[in-house]
TrEMBL record, chains A, B:
Organism of provenance: Odobenus rosmarus divergens (Pacific walrus)
Reaction(s) this enzyme catalyzes, per UniProt: 3-O-{(1->[3)-alpha-D-Xyl-(1->3)-beta-D-GlcA-(1->](n)-4)-beta-D-Xyl-(1->4)-Rib-ol-P-Rib-ol-P-3-beta-D-GalNAc-(1->3)-beta-D-GlcNAc-(1->4)-O-6-P-alpha-D-Man}-L-Thr-[protein] + UDP-alpha-D-glucuronate = 3-O-{beta-D-GlcA-(1->[3)-alpha-D-Xyl-(1->3)-beta-D-GlcA-(1->](n)-4)-beta-D-Xyl-(1->4)-Rib-ol-P-Rib-ol-P-3-beta-D-GalNAc-(1->3)-beta-D-GlcNAc-(1->4)-O-6-P-alpha-D-Man}-L-Thr-[protein] + UDP + H(+); 3-O-{beta-D-GlcA-(1->[3)-alpha-D-Xyl-(1->3)-beta-D-GlcA-(1->](n)-4)-beta-D-Xyl-(1->4)-Rib-ol-P-Rib-ol-P-3-beta-D-GalNAc-(1->3)-beta-D-GlcNAc-(1->4)-O-6-P-alpha-D-Man}-L-Thr-[protein] + UDP-alpha-D-xylose = 3-O-{(1->[3)-alpha-D-Xyl-(1->3)-beta-D-GlcA-(1->](n+1)-4)-beta-D-Xyl-(1->4)-Rib-ol-P-Rib-ol-P-3-beta-D-GalNAc-(1->3)-beta-D-GlcNAc-(1->4)-O-6-P-alpha-D-Man}-L-Thr-[protein] + UDP + H(+); 3-O-[beta-D-GlcA-(1->3)-beta-D-Xyl-(1->4)-Rib-ol-P-Rib-ol-P-3-beta-D-GalNAc-(1->3)-beta-D-GlcNAc-(1->4)-(O-6-P-alpha-D-Man)]-Thr-[protein] + UDP-alpha-D-xylose = 3-O-[alpha-D-Xyl-(1->3)-beta-D-GlcA-(1->4)-beta-D-Xyl-(1->4)-Rib-ol-P-Rib-ol-P-3-beta-D-GalNAc-(1->3)-beta-D-GlcNAc-(1->4)-(O-6-P-alpha-D-Man)]-Thr-[protein] + UDP + H(+)
Family (UniProt): In the C-terminal section; belongs to the glycosyltransferase 49 family.
Topology of the protein relative to the lipid bilayer: Single-pass type II membrane protein
A GO term from the CC aspect: Golgi membrane
The protein's name: Glycosyltransferase-like protein LARGE2 isoform X1
């Protein structure tokens, strides 16, 4: 609070004195009431209109932070007409702020992202997130932050498993399980040099600059170590129902959804021992914690009231079932943090829930790409990888006709892997994952695909943040989809005008967990038996171990959009003869699949080998470690052809399976294919990319790659 | 600035004195630099670190608001460690704030919406928008605000035509044309009782609470009438190029993208005469205004420097081509308003343009529905119509299986009519508008539809705010679409899980401007000749004037998604015989079109009358004043059937046209139809809606409606 250096301290002291005198002279001595009233804001009992730091009163109730008090520092209306304003805590320009969050599992990871978006939206400081996670959450969040590339944001991970032993002995009834209790061990878990941290639950949403919260550390007296907002329900008063026996607390107690921790002082004070003793003692008479860490924090505070710095209620507006929060927000000029601390979350009943829901949805659906904003004020190193990308982008010529293409393929998309709960398949030596990618307009394919393919799937979805939420609701509404635990959905966030088809394929491919992958497209439905057939063939053919091969699944198409799916090869042949089934793209681009040799397939009883030929793009099964797709191919055209060419260059055998088949269903033309057909530039740019690709190919495979160049000589429509 | 009432004034004076003394005692007299430095902020030359009100210096340059100064009132970092803070102007809790904007045409209307969204996002006060508009903008914005239903927002319109004469005599070279100049006449145009107003250009974006800007009125001295931010370019210094002769201005002059106007004082001071005199005089030597109103405001201010209250630069960060804005925003802790005042707008070149673009895109793509938030703090009457809706919604039972249905049909969707530039068709007695509705997944139909239908179209698009921008880019990228001026696109913003098909149809129908409408669906392509045929038939059959009839356009479908469109009835018959064309929904729902009597159509040379039958849902041409669709039908099912039933109840003849035809193209199943097929509840709810509809029908048409009920007796799949 006081400026450093003696002379200033003197001056400050002198000034405070003078202020009081003036207050006296101006307002007849009653500074508090006068200031309060002149601020034009009604105030509740026991609150201080103009606190310098809130105080804890005899009964231990935090008077400065009583639920009706609003936020003194934000309460401008209350101050400005007075001619001298008690200082608001300084906003620490460019200071690095530390935030700790405990996060486990797929659903909490989604919540955390929404919380982080709300923090980033208002922040003006560099941030360091300290994430205590399980393996799932870490896998998701590491990739997410790595691809998000937000300037002036650092992330560190801490393994929840290592910390569990320290809290697992505590019986706990709260829905947050052990994870809630983790907050107790942060002083030990976080780096010893870290002195201060803001601790947040994943179910809070920011509506203001987190630096304003950090600034409240300045209010801490020398003995205070924990900043908390009063609990906005009567839970700890123990009068909610008969025989309701809550843990001990000061008055209403405090809520631990938002915590300011002075880690340095907690360590000095032997925090670990302190809370363990209290918990052990209380557990002699109480069966378990009901509200996890919150019960224990409150019990400790009840013993040592001096430890707590009460925070203004607006920094943790609690929408629990029996909330009294309205006393807070109806008075406050400004809401700072909303806390969805009811198990019902957004479905909680509350007179104003619509208002809070809107704030939450704002960030749930907010385009996270827009948060990739530099902080001018505070120069900071660019995020890993960002520099190269920016450099490459800077090299591009905006006048170049293919600018869009070159820009699109340089774009780094935010990736949220396993967006929904997912169980990794048990390790089986011949298991196959179906790999595909889609955008919103193909969602209705998912149910049918699940019926045709019981095995694991790894699907990349190209969505906006808002569409990702629609997708979530779509899956929840579908019995078929919500029943499946072995389908992994990876959200790749939209950016740029062209569909990054090969980047999407690579994301889905990289996330496949079985030794083999079936590289398919979303508009294809495989034979019901394909999953079993493939695993059998892989085993018989000793794929991977002894021979390097790609198994070709012959592709067909129907032009009818009502269609009864053939249950056997015999039925396929019958439909072919009756003309209601064709080999894939038979009419407009036979070259794409001709080498599969459908005539031979008719007769084949065993797998047969075929030779690569120009423009061949079959659907294949390969080991997971196969070459990646070339990300330069965006939008429509040639993206699979290049991949097959690379397989051939690496001398994969191409083996056609005699019983396997997959069928393409009709759909309206995609926007990209329409653009390809309508725009000559589009075709020219594609040609340019193809040429680059061939140059690289010959560079990497030398003479062996010559045949691809010669094959390219006679120009023709790309597929 | 000074508090009202003598004793306080005394106190304040005393306090100021004391502050200076303390400053002296603390920092050896150099208050300015010390305070500045202690705030941890570097400061530029000529700025005042701690101004009470900015001042205009001898050379006329507003020192308090010099471009490097940042925002004194927001500059907390610079203040808080000092022990006494100069008061920030009070935020007027719940005071009604007035905002005036000049807006003309389709594109400005879209800009205005983005500006308004940014204002509403941060606002905490009731707002009254005063919109000076042309007929187009008024038509768009009246409907938009009416359907937006934002609490605590009032809108008034003023006709630009009435004001033009007052400024049309001024020669002007600025791209804003006459509309820029309109700002000069606001004191006369706005209601005489209106004392203060904030005037905004449509190309500004707010990044903060507009009440903070309004609060700056408190800085005005008694003679000051206009608050402006200094111009952030050297334009008015006249040294940009040789022979560059700008209008006279104080130093760099001021920018008029953001203006605070004391209307009361301006009226007293005879503003109208004042600026007219100055303009007339300058125009003796200058050929025309280059920057419209801004030149004239600056010329007047040059003469009367006392009139202007310079505002902190952050309230109008100007991204013009030669901007010096970086001096402002790189120092400021906080940006308040961004001004895209380059003709290049978002494509302007600027080191930090990405940052600003992100802020702009935030609101461009922000879901406007989320701004329907009440202001707790400030009780205000609900917007027109909102009360009934809320009441009806409150009556719904969340446990009811059809809750979603009932909720969806009560939803009031935001509607932005003529989202893109559009020329109303010239009045012709027999002209026909094609009416249809679509969502994002059918965009690719638009080009084909335009090729098949040269006449006017009225299309309702069901989109999110973000999708509306994708749609905009899609049209801009298409030569076919951008060439068409007679296609009106009406955006209905998404809300709720079910597709409000009939509400969309009614929006498109209500916006059709020709005497007749062809009620079609987006997946149908009409015969190339249909537009001409229909107008001819309407004339021959003396539709409307003498007979009340609906012309039936026979509907067919192809199951092939590659298909060469028949150019004549003869070709249609040939395709029917060859089995590559069917009558519409021949396989799964023949009842829907059977009454059209295709057998008779084969032979027909002249229009023939057919009788209504249960479940008949033909595509028809009717007078524009036909009955509306029943909005209770949402999602899939029975929505057209009900409408045809109502036409029949109103005794429309059903006349089938002998040469007309329209063909349905295949597409993947919509999500709604999938849900219909999979969910029994969905079907039950639809049945419930049908029953309600029939009850109303018999209520309205009495005995005549009996046949519909009897027809309903035998239950069957709805279409």
């Amino acid at each position: 609070m006081l400026p450093r250096g003696r002379p200033r301290a003197l001056g400050a002291a002198a000034l405070l004195l003078l202020l009081l005198l003036i207050g006296f002279f101006l307002f007849g001595g009653d500074v508090e009431c006068e200031l309060g009233e002149r601020g034009g804001e009604r105030r509740g009992p026991g609150s201080l209109p103009c606190p310098l730091t809130p105080r804890v009163s005899a009964d231990g109730r935090p008077r400065g932070a009583a639920a009706v008090d609003g936020d003194p520092s934000a309460d401008r209306g209350g101050r400005n007409r007075s001619d001298c304003v008690p200082p608001r805590p300084p906003l620490p320009k460019c200071e690095l702020l530390h935030v700790a969050i405990v996060c486990a599992g797929h659903n909490s990871s989604r919540d955390l992202v929404t919380l982080v978006k709300s923090v980033l939206f208002y922040r003006k400081n560099p941030l360091h997130f300290h994430l205590v996670t399980d393996a799932m959450a870490r896998n998701i969040l590491e990739m997410l932050f790595h691809t998000w590339m937000v300037p002036a944001v650092r992330v560190s991970f801490y393994d929840v498993e290592e910390l569990k032993p320290q809290v697992s002995w505590i019986p706990n009834k709260h829905y947050s399980g052990l994870y809630g209790l983790m907050k107790l061990v942060l002083p030990a878990a976080l780096p010893p040099e870290l002195a201060r941290v803001i601790v947040l639950d994943t179910d809070v949403t920011f509506a203001s600059d987190i630096a304003e919260l950090w600034a409240l550390f300045a209010h801490f007296s020398d003995e205070q170590v924990i900043g908390l907002v009063e609990n906005q329900s009567d839970w700890y008063l123990g009068n909610l129902w008969r025989n309701h026996r809550p843990w001990p607390a000061l008055g209403r107690g405090f809520n631990t959804g938002v915590i300011l921790l002075r880690l340095d002082r907690l360590r000095q004070a032997g925090w670990g021992q302190m809370w363990t003793l209290t918990a052990t003692r209380e557990l002699l008479t109480l069966p378990a914690t009901s509200l996890a860490d919150q019960d224990i924090f409150n019990a400790v505070i009840k013993e040592h009231p001096g430890l707590v710095q009460p925070l203004p209620c607006v920094w943790n507006v609690q929408l629990s079932d029996h909330t009294l929060a309205e006393r807070c927000y109806s008075e406050a000029s400004d809401l700072k943090v909303i806390h969805w601390n009811s198990p019902k979350k957004l479905r909680v009943k509350n007179k104003h829930v619509e208002y809070f829901r809107n704030l939450y949805l704002t960030f749930l659906e907010y385009d996270g790409n827009l948060l990739r904003r530099e902080l001018f004020g505070c120069p900071s190193p660019p995020p890993a990888g960002a520099e190269q990308v920016q450099w490459a982008l800077a090299q591009l010529d905006e006048e170049d006709a293919c600018f869009e293409f070159r820009q699109q393929r340089l774009t780094v998309h935010r990736v949220h892997v396993t967006f929904l709960p997912h169980e990794p398949p048990p390790p089986r030596p011949h298991d196959v994952t179906l790999v595909a990618q889609l955008s919103m307009d193909r969602l209705q394919m998912l149910e049918a695909l699940c019926r045709h393919w019981p095995g694991p799937m790894s699907l990349a979805l190209y969505l906006t943040d808002a569409e990702a939420q629609q997708f979530l609701r779509f899956v929840e509404a579908s019995a078929v989809l919500s029943a499946r635990q072995n389908v992994a959905y990876h959200v790749v966030y939209r950016e740029g005008p062209l569909y990054p088809v090969n980047q999407l394929r690579n994301v889905a491919l990289a996330q496949a967990l079985t030794p083999y992958v079936f590289l398919s497209d979303i508009d294809f439905l495989p034979a019901y038996s394909l999953y079993d057939d493939l695993r059998a063939s892989i085993e018989q053919l000793k794929l991977g171990s002894e021979r390097r091969a790609a198994l070709v699944v012959p592709a067909f198409e129907t032009l009818h959009y009502r269609f009864s799916f053939p249950s056997s090869k015999a039925e396929v042949l019958a439909l072919l003869d009756s003309g209601s089934l064709y080999t894939f793209r038979y009419h407009e681009w036979p070259r794409g699949h001709a080498p599969t040799d459908y005539a031979r397939w008719r007769e084949a009883q065993t797998p047969y080998r075929v030779q690569w030929a120009a423009d061949y793009e079959p659907y294949v099964v390969v080991p997971r470690d196969c070459p990646r797709y070339d990300p330069r191919f965006v939008g429509f055209g040639w993206n699979k052809v290049a991949h097959i060419m690379e397989l051939d260059a690496q001398e994969y055998e191409l083996l056609v399976l005699p019983e396997a088949f997959t069928i393409h269903l009709p759909h309206g033309p995609s926007l990209d294919i329409s653009r390809f057909r309508s725009s000559p530039t589009y075709r020219d740019c594609l040609q340019a990319v193809k040429d680059e690709f061939h140059q690289d190919l010959s560079r990497r495979y030398g003479a062996a790659a010559l045949k691809y160049l010669t094959a390219l000589q006679q120009p023709r429509r790309p597929a």
